[in-house]
C-alpha cells in the first residue's frame, strides 16, 4: 500500500493528528496487505462515487480503498548530522511516497514551542534544511563515484554527472529537489538515491479549535500558503485537536458536531483526499453483488497491473477486462442497460486504466 509520512517539529500536534487517524481507523480485516505497526494508521479514502455505485448495485458490502499514514516522530534540528536519532528518522522518510508536514498555527502559552515562538514558515525551513542536508550528502557521495566512472568514457556517466551537479546547486541554494525541472530520463538516473526533497509535500496547518471554521483568515495559515505556492506544495488547514474529537464520534453525532463547527467535512477527510491527489493516484472500481470496491492505482497503469492490485494471480493470468466508465454506468443506471448501449468495452493488455473505470477482469488461474 502507498504511504504518507507525517513529519514536523516537536509539539506541533503530530501525535494528536496521528491518534485521530488511528481512531478513525479502517477495518483492518479488509486490508490484509497493510502493515501492522503502531506507527502506521490505515485510512479509507472517501469517495462519493463509491456511495453512488453502492446505491446502484446494492452489494453485500462496500469497501473503500485505503492508504497508510506513518508517524515519523523525532525529526529535530540537527537530524541530518545524526542528532536525536536523526538518521533513523530520515531513513523512515526515505520509505514513504509523500510527506505530510504538520506545522503549528495555533497559539497556546501552555505548550512550548521548541524555538520559543509560533512561526510556521521558520518551522518548515528548519525541517526542510535537514532534508536538504541529508540529500546533499547523498548527491555528493554519488557524484564522487560518478566522476570516477567518467574515466571509463561511458556517456551515461557524463549525463549523470551533469544532473547531479544541477541537483547539488539546487540543494546548496536551500531548494528542494522537487523544485527542479527534470525530464523523466533525468529523474530515472537519480531515482535510486531516493532523495527526501524529491517527494511530494503537503503542509497540514494545525489551527486552534476555535479558529477552525475560519482557518483561512489565520495569519499563520496565510504565511504557510504563501510559502507553499512558491514551492508548488499544497496546504490543508486542520485542527488536530478537533479531529481527535471527531474521530470518536459516528453517524449523526459526527454530522452534528461538524455542523456546530461550521464544517461540511472533517479535516481528516480533506487531508486524505489531498494526499491522494498529491500522490497522483487513480481509483478504479469493481462492482459485483457480493462487493462493490474501490482500488488504488498509479496514473498510467495498464489493465494487467491494475488487476494485480487485487491479486497477483489476476495479473499473471490476465486475459481481458470488461470496462465501463463510472459516468456511463451511472447514466445508464445498470450493467444491462450499459451493455445494450454498447458502452461496455472489452479491453486487452495494453489498455491504460482511467480514473473511475468500473472493471471486471477475466483471467486464467
Ligand atoms: P507532537 O510533538 O508534534 O506529536 O505534538 P502533540 O500532538 O503531542 O501535541 C503537543 C501538545 O499540543 C499537546 O499537549 C496537544 O494537546 C497540543 N495541541 C495539539 N494540537 C492543538 C491545537 O490545535 N490547539 C491547542 N491548544 N493545543 C494543541
From TrEMBL:
* The keyword Kinase is assigned to this record: no
Names of required cofactors: Mg(2+)
Q: Which residues form a coiled coil?
A: 129-156
Which annotated residues bind ATP?
A: 11-16
Domain TGS, chain residue ranges per copy? 280-363
Described by its record, this protein's role is as follows: ATPase that binds to both the 70S ribosome and the 50S ribosomal subunit in a nucleotide-independent manner.
Family, as annotated: Belongs to the TRAFAC class OBG-HflX-like GTPase superfamily. OBG GTPase family. YchF/OLA1 subfamily.
Name listed for the protein in its UniProt record: Ribosome-binding ATPase YchF
* Native organism: Paenibacillus profundus
Name of the gene = ychF
Amino acid at each position: 500500500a502507498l504511504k504518507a509520512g507525517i513529519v514536523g517539529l516537536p509539539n506541533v500536534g503530530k501525535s494528536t493528528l496521528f491518534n485521530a487517524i488511528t481512531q478513525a481507523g479502517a477495518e483492518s480485516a479488509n486490508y490484509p496487505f497493510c502493515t501492522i505497526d503502531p506507527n502506521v494508521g490505515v485510512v479509507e479514502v472517501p469517495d462519493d462515487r463509491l456511495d453512488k455505485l453502492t446505491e446502484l448495485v446494492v452489494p453485500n458490502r462496500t469497501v473503500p480503498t485505503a492508504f497508510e499514514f506513518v508517524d515519523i516522530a523525532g525529526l529535530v534540528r540537527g537530524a541530518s548530522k545524526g542528532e536525536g536519532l536523526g538518521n533513523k528518522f530520515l531513513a523512515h522518510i526515505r520509505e514513504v511516497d509523500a510527506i505530510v508536514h504538520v506545522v503549528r498555527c495555533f497559539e497556546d502559552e501552555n505548550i512550548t514551542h521548541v524555538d520559543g515562538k509560533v512561526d510556521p514558515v521558520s518551522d518548515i525551513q528548519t525541517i526542510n534544511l535537514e532534508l536538504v542536508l541529508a540529500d546533499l550528502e547523498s548527491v555528493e557521495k554519488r557524484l564522487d563515484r560518478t566522476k570516477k566512472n567518467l574515466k571509463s568514457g561511458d556517456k551515461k556517466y557524463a549525463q549523470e554527472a551533469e544532473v547531479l551537479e544541477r541537483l547539488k546547486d539546487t540543494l546548496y541554494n536551500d531548494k528542494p529537489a522537487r523544485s527542479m525541472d527534470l525530464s523523466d530520463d533525468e529523474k530515472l538516473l537519480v531515482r535510486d538515491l531516493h532523495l527526501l526533497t524529491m517527494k511530494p509535500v503537503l503542509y497540514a496547518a494545525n489551527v486552534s479549535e476555535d479558529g477552525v471554521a475560519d482557518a483561512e483568515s489565520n495569519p499563520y495559515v496565510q504565511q504557510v500558503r504563501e510559502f507553499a505556492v512558491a514551492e508548488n506544495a499544497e496546504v490543508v488547514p486542520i485542527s488536530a485537536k478537533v479531529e481527535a474529537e471527531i474521530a470518536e464520534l459516528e453517524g449523526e453525532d459526527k454530522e452534528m458536531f461538524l455542523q456546530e463547527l461550521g464544517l461540511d467535512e472533517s479535516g481528516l477527510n480533506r487531508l486524505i483526499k489531498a494526499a491522494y491527489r498529491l500522490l497522483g493516484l487513480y481509483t478504479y472500481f469493481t462492482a459485483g453483488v457480493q462487493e462493490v470496491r474501490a482500488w488504488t492505482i498509479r496514473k498510467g497503469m495498464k489493465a494487467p497491473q491494475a488487476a494485480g492490485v487485487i491479486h497477483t494471480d489476476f495479473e499473471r493470468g490476465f486475459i481481458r477486462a470488461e470496462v465501463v466508465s463510472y459516468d456511463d454506468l451511472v447514466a445508464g443506471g445498470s450493467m444491462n442497460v450499459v451493455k445494450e448501449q454498447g458502452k461496455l468495452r472489452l479491453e486487452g493488455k495494453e489498455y491504460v486504466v482511467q480514473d473511475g473505470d468500473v472493471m471486471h477482469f477475466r483471467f486464467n488461474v
